[in-house]
Amino acid sequence: MRTKPTFIAADAKRLIGRKYSDSVIQNDMQLWPFKVVASSDDRPEIIVKYKGEEKRLCAEEISSMVLTKMREIAEKFLESPVKNAVVTVPAYFNDSQRKATKDAGAIAGLDIMRIINEPIAAALAYGLQKRANNVGKRNVFIFDLGGGTFDVSLLTLKDDHSFDVKATAGDTHLGGEDFDNRMVNYLVKEFKRKNRVDISGNPRALRRLRTACERTKRTLSFDTESTIDIDAIYEGIDFHMLVTRAKFEQLNIDLFEKCLEIVKSCLTDAKMNKSSVDDVVLVGGSSRIPKVQQLLQDFFKGKDLCSSINPDEAVAYGAAVQAALLCEGIKNVPNLVLQDVTPLSLGTSIVGDVMSVVIPRNTSIPVKKTREYITINDNKSDVTIKVYEGERMIASENNLLGLFDLSVRRAPRGLPIQVCFTIDADGILNVSAEEKTSGNKNDITVTNENGRLSSEEIKRMIEEAEHLKSEDMKHVKKVRAINALDDYLYDMKKVMKDDSVIYKLTSAEKVKINSAKIKGKKLIDGTQDEGTFVFVDFLRELQRTFESALNRFNVGK
């Protein structure tokens, strides 16, 4: 899609369920060509241009558009409506991010039957493939390095086809995009050094460079070097640079080593030695990077890395298996039992800002645990229950999921209060509190303060998505027309570099063709506010002008 990069929305997965004030969002904003602003409740919103006007979209809306497109593809293939879905998320997604993902599904008109962790879905795919040969239990380590997130999980596959998750770890902000960013920053500095020109403030140039870096990263997975060529990246200056695999590895070695630290953390949490791991399964496109594979293989003492399942498809395959397990009336459903775990400790704050853990990290889910607390002041009429997730002993240093007040009878200090934490199969938390003597109760799942969309907001977004469907189709047609014109101009440019062609053209023809090329380039690089027919008609006129000149001396396109 060729449009202004400041209006291309991306990285919704890194935004979803987070606050605008989050330091992670603030750091990423320095690298994104699009603009992100804060909503009234500190939720990040992406600025896009629609029908000549600026529009704000939250990450849930962007994700819902992706889910809607996937549903349409599935319905076309199956030739039947799709209403339900199983959605996978990074293992280290927190409670707010999981709920926001469910909201995105609701906006897309889907009933999210279950949310499962991505490495667990990959394990399902791997386990189903290996079940015929699985004798006794096997400890399987899932290494999932994708475009934006990194997750690892250690599972035990038993011969009764059960999957017991021992531990999980990860980083929701480590992946292929971070490797791309390192390469982009390096090449921007090199371009400035060679040409005395700084392109860091030009979104269009950065977008073109980032796209080239993504392509180069993939090439370096099977080749030792790759050349980046970009015509007129900035002020008419061409970009030409050779990037070697060694240089790419040097730029990212600390990030690769960070992956290994997370691997070690997962094994420590599971209280398992690396020698006890039977299989190491690679998932995610970035797991193809040779240096990553080398470091991982060295860590596991030369153990062969399993690549029998497609790293790009494993998670989706596992989600399909989970969906089959949840649905009735499906033939040949595998007899599998999945026991997942919670990635972070959950608890509440007590006197002195101390984190009192109710559900420890890596506890099997679904789970329900209750703890008793007492009031610390005389004659209190209510107490505040603050719910946190994280591993810090200081409660306020962890992630605040929500809070609520519980009315209690006035009594001397020491009044007992029962607090119950419940995590369902989707990994979503509900916390309730009860004061037994009065019978007063209250609970919390997640409020708007935690980034959850209200039912009214979800309804509005669903209606808006339906209303804008026809407008979206018009936009697609326009984009195709612009792309067709851009492709033809590119082909013209290549032909005009042929001296044998230039020699046979008259001066008048050269002027006419060059004039048409300039006009077409201005049309594409302009505001693009014109109707689709403008680009279609111009392409036809351009084809007539160029091809009539070539046909005069029988030179083909």
In short:
With 557 residues, this protein is α+β, with helices and mostly antiparallel strands.
Question: Could you give the topology of this structure?
Answer:
Blueprint: H1 12-15, H2 23-29, E1 35-38, E2 44-50, E3 53-58, H3 59-78, E4 84-89, H4 95-107, E5 111-117, H5 118-130, E6 138-145, E7 150-157, E8 162-171, H6 176-195, H7 203-219, E9 225-234, E10 237-244, H8 245-269, E11 279-283, H9 290-299, E12 305-306, H10 314-326, E13 337-341, E14 346-350, E15 354-359, E16 364-365, E17 367-374, E18 382-389, E19 399-407, E20 416-423, E21 429-435, E22 440-444, H11 455-467, H12 469-495, H13 499-504, H14 507-525, H15 532-551
Parallel strand pairs: 4-5, 6-11, 8-13, 11-12
Antiparallel strand pairs: 1-2, 2-3, 6-7, 7-8, 9-10, 13-16, 14-15, 14-18, 17-20, 18-19, 20-21, 21-22
Helix pairs in contact: 3-4, 4-11, 5-10, 6-7, 6-8, 8-9, 12-14, 12-15, 14-15
Describe the overall structure.
This protein is an alpha+beta fold. It has 15 helices and 22 strands. The strands form 6 sheets. A 7-stranded mixed beta sheet has the order 12-11-6-7-8-13-16. Strands 15-14-18-19 form a 4-stranded antiparallel beta sheet, with no helix packed on it. Strands 17-20-21-22 form a 4-stranded antiparallel beta sheet, with no helix packed on it. A hairpin with a 4-residue loop joins strand 6 and strand 7. Helix 4 (95-107) packs across helix 11 (455-467). The radius of gyration is 28 Å and the shape is globular.
